[in-house]
Task: structure prediction
Amino acid sequence: MTDGLRVDIDGPVATLTLDRPEALNALTVALKVGLREALERIAADRTVRAVILTGAGRAFCAGQDLAEREQPDAAPLDEELRERYNPIIRALRSMGQPVIAAVNGVAAGAGASLAFACDLRIASADARFVLAFGKIGLVPDSGATWFLPRLVGSTRAAELALVGDPVGADQALRLGLVSRVVTAEELMPEARTLADRIAAGAPLALALTKLALDRSWSIGLEEALEDEAKLQGIAGASTDHAEGLAAFRQKRPPQFTGE
Ligand code: LHQ
Result:
């Protein structure tokens, strides 16, 4: 536990819980540093095969801790983004393990950006996304302007970013911002089931799949086809591919090792 962050590793699944419920898990410097370090540690931990990111209490994350911004020694916003937020977003995208955001309540400002940067988002019926940046005279940050059009299309992204109305769970499902909505009680069990199913997959193939999906946004079809061929060459040479074939032949579940 670092300031405001709980890290629980249970078998192949790491659960990161933003844990400042009294401030709706708003992001302080300590929490941002702790989150970045935890993500980097987990990225290097081969026993962890899937990650869940969630919030304690009634919120997922209310974004930047606004009280901390009032402190005289608060870093300039651009520096805060470069030094503390952007490395978290990069860590989420560069780690091989898929990350599931279990959005249990409001996700506002950079809290919404955190959820957008995850590989999957599932929500409880209480979840809502608020692009709160505009209300305090700021622009969407921490990847929000990049992820949002890719997740929901440019027309809807513009409305969400420029008007800033809260998006409830059902609307988020309709927009494709989340892939499932369940009750509050079902959220963590559902996230865990999903994480376990992912964790049963071949880690190398999953990491390469994540990489290819991300790269697809910045390349054309020809490059993507060549990328897939290269990545398949790597996956195809793995012990896990041989294990997958053997398990198919022997009609049993595969036991992947990440080799
Ligand atoms: C909070 C916060 C909060 C501190 C609720 N901080 N205490 C910004 C600057 C720097 C660098 C880079 O990037 C960014 C990006 C950003 O994230 S900008 C956006 C920052 N976030 C916001 O503007 C959201 C502010 N919060 C709200 O609008 C509301 O609290 C939401 C809509 C999230 C939830 O509303 P309610 O459910 O009505 O809850 P509440 O407002 O009553 O909040 C409960 C408590 O949590 C309250 O404290 P109190 O002591 O009065 O019970 C709030 O002050 C505290 N809290 N958000 N971001």
Summary: Residues 23-24, 26, 62-67, 69, 77, 80-81, 85, 106, 108-110, 130, 132-133, 136, 138, 141 surround LHQ (CB under 6 Å). Residues 5-199 form a domain with the 2-enoyl-CoA Hydratase; Chain A, domain 1 fold (CATH 3.90.226.10). The longest strand covers residues 5-10.
